[in-house]
Amino acid sequence: VQLVESGGGLVQPGGSLKLSCAASGFTFSSYGMSWYRQTPGTERELVAAISSTGGGTKYTDSVKGRFTISRDNAKNTVYLQMNSLKPEDTAVFYCNVRIRMVNYWGQGTQVTVSS
């Protein structure tokens, strides 16, 4: 299993970023996918999740209405569109898949929201 995130960077408050996670090594279309984030000294927080077909999504309260998770099963890729970014969104964002009770993670991509 390999998960490779991209799309992070520095953005001003109110700006937007779109993260991508390219997946390989498993049958992508059979598994739900998730995005987590982590800041130093804290546990990883579930940000958003999407079902295997893309028909179901969920979000943590702090990002509802601002972030959108989506997936393209033909490209084995999951996305996180982040709008109206706030300084408190600054974190390392990780892509996640859970297969047979094992969590797999990407290397993470840094998102920094600052003026």
Instruction: Tell me the total number of β-strands.
Output: 11
SSE arrangement, N to C: EEEEEEEEEEE
> What is the tally of helical segments?
0
Q: Which geometry do the CA atoms define?
A: globular
- Proportion in helices: under 10%
The rounded Rg comes to 13 Å
The average pLDDT is: 98
Cα(first) to Cα(last) distance is: 37 Å
Instruction: Characterize the quaternary organization of these chains.
Output: single chain
Poorly predicted residue ranges = none
* Helix/strand structural class: mainly beta
Could you tell me the strand content as a percent range? over 45%
Largest sheet: 7 strands, mixed
Kindly describe this structure.
This protein has 115 residues and is mainly beta. It has strands at 2-6, 9-11, 17-24, 33-38, 45-50, 57-59, 67-72, 77-82, 91-99, 102-105, 109-113. A hairpin with a 6-residue loop joins strand 4 (33-38) and strand 5. It is globular. The mean pLDDT is 98.
